[in-house]
TrEMBL record:
Pfam families listed in its UniProt record: Mob_synth_C (PF06463), Radical_SAM (PF04055)
Gene name of the record: CNX2
Physiological role: Isoform MOCS1A and isoform MOCS1B probably form a complex that catalyzes the conversion of 5'-GTP to cyclic pyranopterin monophosphate (cPMP). MOCS1A catalyzes the cyclization of GTP to (8S)-3',8-cyclo-7,8-dihydroguanosine 5'-triphosphate and MOCS1B catalyzes the subsequent conversion of (8S)-3',8-cyclo-7,8-dihydroguanosine 5'-triphosphate to cPMP.
Keywords of this entry: 4Fe-4S, GTP-binding, Iron, Iron-sulfur, Lyase, Metal-binding, Molybdenum cofactor biosynthesis, Nucleotide-binding, S-adenosyl-L-methionine
SUPFAM superfamilies: Radical SAM enzymes (SSF102114)
E.C. designation(s): 4.1.99.22, 4.6.1.17
Keyword Lyase (UniProt): yes
Cofactors: [4Fe-4S] cluster
Annotated protein name in UniProt: Molybdenum cofactor biosynthesis protein 1
Enzyme category, top tier: lyase
Region of interest called Disordered, as start-end residue ranges on this chain: 1-21
Length: 365
């Protein structure tokens, strides 16, 4: 009969340390949650991701202070960016798995010469309802009609000031009049609403809060006030953040009819209407009142990296998987694992400002 070390039975029965037991239980619950998902685009918190943002380029014809570091960035080599076919392939797979809205971003998406072709090919995907673009509007007025004919359904134009000299200071470029021209062109072509994104910064443009609201009086414009967010190179200062509550109260002083509209669960903005105004006002409250519980969006950067949360440092390369010969099923397995690891919510403001992350121009905000 074999001789066992004395105390062997007792050692086998010894329970794991409390900390290890908790970790093991969490791992088990997470594995069960991942296994129980209805598809690769549902995370372990039951959030279904039907909205995909695709950055088409890191290049931009502006140099906005909060987006690109003053010294610029080293651009990813062209051959390392997703090709037209790769963009369409990724989009096709995501749409086949439940995505019905795609937003094209950058950098500045209008500097990509194949933009019209990409939109046309996306429009042909069965099940895709919306194709949107976020642009600085500098050149949009030139080709918006062609983009609309190709299938572009929604337009967001970024404009942080209504004062031309301040525009030049914030963007380090000229062209304020051209952005306004693009907004008017979008209205002329029937986009309703035309969304105007305004990153609100204390001491920079918060004195124009009411002027932006006035833009909504005669035109179908949805002005979206976005809280200033921390990203690498933008010299984030918490004191620059103008909270949703403060901005809303300041607007209410002049516009007492400001009334909350019914928002969809996955809507990132808090939407308001005003009596006598054709347009609306919204607040994107990423910093002071996050909307993580209803998050339905995923991001693919220009280099093909998938980012499941704007504020998460983790990324996974779909480009490398595709160029390594991955089948469609294998590619969606990669996506599914990344989505399965998405957290319930992003970090707090104090943690975010100390977190290393890509600059906004690389992420495609």
């Amino acid at each position: 009969m074999p001789k066992y070390d004395e105390g062997w039975e007792e050692k086998e029965r010894e329970p794991p340390a409390p900390g290890e037991r908790v970790k093991a239980l969490r791992r088990q619950l997470r594995e069960e949650a991942i296994a129980g998902r209805s598809g690769p685009l549902e995370d372990t918190f039951g959030r279904r991701h039907n909205y995909l943002r695709i950055s088409l380029t890191e290049k931009c014809n502006l140099r906005c202070l909060y987006c690109m570091p003053e010294e610029g960035i080293d651009l990813t080599a062209k051959e390392e960016l997703l090709s037209t076919d790769e963009v369409v392939r990724v989009a096709r797979l995501f749409v086949a798995n439940g995505v019905d809205k795609i937003r094209l971003t950058g950098g500045e998406p209008t500097v990509r010469p194949d933009l019209e072709e990409i939109i046309r090919r996306l429009r042909a995907l069965p099940g895709l309802r919306d194709i949107a673009i976020t642009t600085n509007g500098l050149t949009l007025h030139r080709n918006l009609h062609a983009l609309q004919a190709a299938g572009l359904t929604h337009v967001n134009i970024s404009l942080d000031t209504l004062v031309p000299p301040k525009f030049e200071l914030l963007t380090r470029r000229r062209g304020h009049d051209r952005v306004l021209k693009s907004i008017d062109r979008a209205v002329e072509l029937g986009y309703d609403p035309v969304k105007v994104n305004v990153v609100l910064m204390r001491g920079v443009n918060d004195d124009e809060l009411l002027d932006f609201v006035e833009m909504t009086r005669e035109k179908p414009i949805n002005v979206r006030f976005i809280e200033f967010m921390p990203f690498d190179g933008n010299k984030f200062e918490e004191k620059k953040v103008v909270s949703y509550c403060e901005a809303k109260e300041r607007i209410l002083e002049k516009y007492p009819t400001l009334t909350r509209m019914q928002d969809h669960r996955s809507e990132v903005a808090k939407n308001f209407k005003l009596d006598g105004h054709r347009g609306t006002v919204s607040f994107v409250t990423s910093m002071t009142n996050h909307f993580c519980g209803g998050c339905n969006r995923l991001r693919i950067m220009a280099d093909g990296n998938l980012k499941v949360c704007l504020f998460d440092q983790g990324e996974v390369s779909l480009r490398d998987a595709m160029r390594g010969g991955a089948s469609d099923d294998e590619l969606m397995d990669v996506v599914g694992k990344a989505v399965g690891n998405k957290k319930a919510k992003h970090a707090g403001m104090s943690d975010l400002q100390n977190m290393e992350n890509r600059s906004m121009i690389r992420i495609g905000g």
